[in-house]
Amino acid sequence: MGRTNTSSKPKIKIKHLGKYNRGADDFYVSEESTSYGNKKPYSVFYENQEPLVRLLKGDTIEILNQSRENSVDMIFADPPYFLSNGGISCHAGKMVSVNKGKWDKSKGVEENHKFNLEWLKACQRVLKPNGTIWVSGTQHVIFSVGYAMQELGFKILNDITWEKPNPPPNLSCRYFTHSTETVLWAGKNAKSKHLFNYALMREFNGGKQMKTVWKFTSPSSNEKTFGKHPTQKPVELLQRIIQASTKMGDLVLDPFCGSSTTGVASILLDRKYVGIDFEEDYLDLSVKRLKKTVAEKESRLFPTTSIASIKASE
Length: 314
Ligand SMILES: C[S@@+](CC[C@H](N)C(=O)[O-])C[C@H]1O[C@@H](n2cnc3c(N)ncnc32)[C@H](O)[C@@H]1O
Hints:
Helix content: 25-40%
CATH topology: Rossmann fold
Order of helices and strands: EEHEEEHEHEEHEHEHEHH
Low-confidence stretches: 1-25, 307-314
CATH architecture: 3-Layer(aba) Sandwich
CATH superfamily: Vaccinia Virus protein VP39
Bound molecules: S-adenosylmethionine
Shape: globular
């Protein structure tokens, strides 16, 4: 499916950022203030105007540091967990390597923390004053992320435990079965007045206040029709996050978008979406998933029968 030769021309036409609609609320990457000489550190990999969906290809820190300040309502980040270090796991009853890719290799505690500080700082700059950020992680990365958030002055709002009801067994039998991930939710800084759709969350929880333990299964096979990303998140988890902390029309950014689960959920919920990743194969997968979601949503909104009846009444 993916292209391994990165020098070959992508199938999807690359547009230049100069074509962006630079409205007051828009997120854009400045071409004027580039600190990289003539070399553009990014390209627009895919763009759809209605609903607004953009995929940017490049290093997320470089792109974010060139982007407009205070322009994003909410960020969901699923960064490298730094766990691809030769370990083993179990998939479909078989022993498999846990390695996800080069991007997920640990560079050591200090370098990993430096990276977390850098990308979180870049995210904080583009968040609107009352915007919030959600970051997922396991024990391999989440303590560093939480500490970096404290160092940068984010206002930590909640630590959500995502419980997986059917985790793979622990093959070594020397540990408890890993069955959770943590998702930290934080406001831009101490002053920010974050949005929380409290009543909707209570309604989802049968009229009781929603707690911080959420149960969702791993992505189902219909979320992988075009192939899968090695660390793909379930759409339901992203829908919950988006519904809890944004309103219709808000701009959602995913700085490590992978297969764009965040984008799929954003489209379904009428939010704008910008995703960033440096791996072309993952962006290809994203485009397929995003196009399918847009098409399915349009066919639900404008079923052929109603289009036929509109034509008949003209
Ligand atoms: C944990 S995965 C995200 C998976 C995603 N949540 C999904 O549901 O498909 C992290 C992604 O970040 C990308 N990535 C890692 N470091 C990056 C960087 N510095 N700049 C851009 N993308 C990066 C990887 O290519 C990978 O696809």
